[in-house]
Amino acid sequence: MRERHVIDLFKLATGPFVIACMQWFHAWDRMEGWLYLGLHGTYGVLWVLKSRIFPDRQWEKKLTLWRGFFLSTGLSLYWAAPVLLLWRQVKVPGPLAFGCIAMFGLGVFLHFAADMQKHVSLKLRPGKLITEGLWKRVRNPNYLGELLIYVSFAALSMHWIPFGVLGVAIAIEWIPNMIRKDRSLSRYPEFAAYRKQSGMILPWVL
After folding, report:
1. According to DSSP H, which parts of 58-93 are helical?
2. Which residues of 98-116 are buried (b: 16+ CB within 10 A; e: fewer)?
3. First to last CA, the chain
4. What does the pLDDT average to over 122-132?
């Protein structure tokens, strides 16, 4: 079993989990539940499709017992948002709903378009540093997209816990991955110039 199998399983299970929460909290008439299901549930399906069509080689590593436990625990913590949303019977204001939908849409574009660009570039130009398109000003546009996506989920819950879960994930998984990637890319002679013109996760305004 590979890491992506566990990740895909949890992503795909998000929709059924939110539906189970709606049943448990008797929230079938709550717009907030349907909104959350539409966003996070759809993202789970899109992730699995992406994993099948243009997979990220990062998640192709063989799964160890410890890594499997770590991934399962971390991914399940993301489900705190729908639980808090429905359990606390949160009323999401219209402007916040609009903001979360807009943030989700932008995040999906950045995340999936960046991964597709990377997948195609590595196929057509193996061994070449990607410094154009979405990668021109940001060295990790896919992580930026994922950040916007998960901030939209956390904001819908209107509670600090999902933001805390996201912060922990960024600190112990995302940032180390980005640092390791920078170290790996430093073998390219042109990386020094590329690093000066780009941000790790946010674009420099030039």
Report:
1. 65-77, 80-87
2. eebeebbeebbebbbebbe
3. 44
4. 90
Give the span between the Cα atoms of 115 and 101, in whole angstroms: 21
CB count, 10 Å around CB of 140? 21
Q: Taking the domains of the chain in order of start, what are their residue ranges? A: 3-197
Q: What are the pLDDT digits (tens) for 138-151?
A: 999 999 999 999 99
Mark out the alpha helices in 125-170 (DSSP H runs).
Answer: 141-157, 160-169
In tens, the pLDDT along 79-121 reads 999 999 999 999 999 999 999 999 999 999 999 999 999 999 9
Question: CA angle 168-174-176, nearest 5°?
Answer: 100
HSE-up (13 A, CA, CB side) for residue 125: 8
